[in-house]
Task: structure prediction
Amino acid sequence: MANDGEIDQEKYDRISEKLFAQYNDPAIAFIELAPQGVIRYLYPLQDAESLLNRDLNIKHKADLERIKEGGQPIIYGPYEMSIGIRACIITKPIYLYDEQGTKKFWGYAVIVLRYPDVLNVIDMDAESQLYDYKLSHDDDVTGKQEIILESSSQALFQPVSADFAFANGKWKLSAEWKGGWITRNELLMEFFLILLLAGLAGFYTNAYYKQRGDEIALHHVINDSDEALSVVAKDSSEVFMCNKAFRRLLGISGAFRSGLSYQEFFKHPVISLPELLENRSTVITNQAANNKLVIRAAKIDWNGTPAALLRGREYDLEFFDSLTLLPNQFHFQKLADKVIEKLQKSSRQPICVFYNIVGMKFFNAENGYAAGDMLLKETAKVLQDVYDDALVARFSNDNFCLLTRADGLQEKLKAANRRISMLGRAARIDVKAGIYGIRKDSNRSIAEITDAAKMAADSIHDDVDRHIRYYDDELRQQLLDQRFIREHLDKALQEKEFEVYYQPVIRALTGELAGYEALVRWHSKELGFLPPFRFIPILEQSHQITAVDTYVIREICRQYREDVDAGRPVVPISFNLSRIDIMQADMCEIITEAAANYQVPHAMLHIEITESILTGNEEKMHKEIKRFHDAGFQVWMDDFGSGYSNLNSLKDFDFDVIKLDMKFLSSMSEKAKSILYSTVAMAKQIGIETLAEGCETQEHYDFLRAIGCEKIQGWYFGKPLPLAEARKNLAAKEITTECSEDAAFYHAAGQLLYPLKDPFAILEEKKGQCRFLYWNKAYEQLTFATTQLSMAALEQLLSRTDSPQRKFLERQLQKLSVGESQKFAYPYKGNFIILTTKLLNRQEKHLLLWLSQENSRADI
Result:
């Protein structure tokens, strides 16, 4: 710079280039010179030319005037600059002297430092081995707090803090030992502040150099700490140092003696140092002081040597879980408020996550309790590893709880769920996580917070497709509804808020009404109309469902008696019983009593149970099913084909009907059709009737009739409705009701009706009239090809008692008994029609015939 204040551009560029090389480019973004506050010189120009000839720091004119008078530098940032970089800016005043020696203000020198690249220049390696720290700045112009430097993004748990003034504003440094248990020690804190600020301030003012002797300084910091600390070499296991607090904990008097190994120092511990580093913590028995200690370990670098920093504390079952060595629920709740407070002060939202490890009972049964304990210990390690900055605790059995921050939560949830699920190996282990976000204005206690997170996890306990659930307004309302349902059940029953709905069951052969399934609905005065999924699972969980099912049974019987007395046709009614009904009540006695009160024949009441009821209750269920049968009630298996259906259930238990799950009909794929076809055939072979749920289209109906399914239920015929409305719906569809005599007739015939893919038809003769109840497309086409008759014309022909075809058929049928079949040739217009007949059932003036036809021949 010349005496007249002009800058030699060439020299400026050369000096700036050297400065860049010396101070770790790319930490320095560029250097500015601003005579009288206007930027005239800039190095390098690339990407920053727009700053030339602009006023300097327009937003901070008052600061510029202040440092012009005082001669001290100022620091701003980090903040976003107009040229698109985030930076910290150091501004220093420059003065020149004239020939008389008078000092005159020239302008400003500015160094723009990229953030966070500048942090790589400040060597804090030694300090960061022991401390988590955070340096923040309160700008005296904007009043905003900005974090300038931090060892990690995690919130500090129990930091010691110090405030100080530097350049333009107030600064605050907070620090704590890595991972826990720090006590206030102002002398040590002040020492640490000097180390940290010497690095930061020295770099900013171009006067920083790294002082030697870090090893001695840190040795003193550790040795004088109130926390029990020790440093051990990772590879050689040599104990580098053990402070006074640790020696007191171990019951060792006198000075620390170097040269001891980890094994010698801890008197042959039960766990090696590598294992301790892997497990993070252990409990050792201290013979000298006759106590147990919790030792926690963290990996550090000690003056270039890989080492372990050990922390000790006296073990107490009142505070720690004996299996995982995590804090227990009591200790978690003691620590939680401070963790939440610290996270909120650092502008991070605290999150409570409650983990439920589902499937532990089965895992223990298959692998033993020792393996189960190991799985829980591994789960604790996974949670500590994934949530490395969190307060993690084991609450009870297979439940863990933690407090962490919201940022990065989704990735951590996925990682933890994946790793824990893999711990089960061959056994199925499912992980459910309930999450509660803690708002700053929340007045919930920590017990209420953990309860909310637990309720979120519990809400998806039985949902195999969901592993994460937030406690939100929707769940809160669900829980309120659940409480209302449980608390208002008795009142709702007394005031008859429950209503029985009826869904028709259709005979596949005839298309007539063969029965109803009774389903319950709740017309709550407070909550409105409640479908079954809103209240049945809740009442099953609270063991209150039996009261509702008993109400339904009595209503069914009452309605039956009302219909009989009014002369209306009646059909059998099926209803569902739950596991709770079977296990806690005498349902056979309840049903029998209701039937007796309203004079309902037992054959009119059919009991539906799901296969899940059978699992784990085989002996009880054998006994109850036999009691139902002995009393004259049919017992049906509901939802066959859903979940984990097991053919052993059909082998081991006596069912009259299996209801095929509606999911089979949802896709109507070839595989689904084949499964239904085979299931119907198998059921007939073992004497069980089939009923298919979920029939919604004509296509469904035609297929189910073709494969020989005896009964059909679904919205194609009618959705569940109050009985009067259900009858109106059937009348509108012209569906008639079968009588009890026909029901027995068709039931017997249905057992002999096996599904075929060949041309076949079902012919009924009743009181001299013939009608085809069913025929497939192949039979219709072959009939027309051989006789030129439609199925309607053939039906009329067979109904004429004087027709040759009718007389020929009657002669053949005289030779057949029920269940027998016969093959014969019928001459027709010069050809022979090859027919096979099977008599499905015969009563007075009523028979049912199965017909199969082959191609006609002329050479018989």
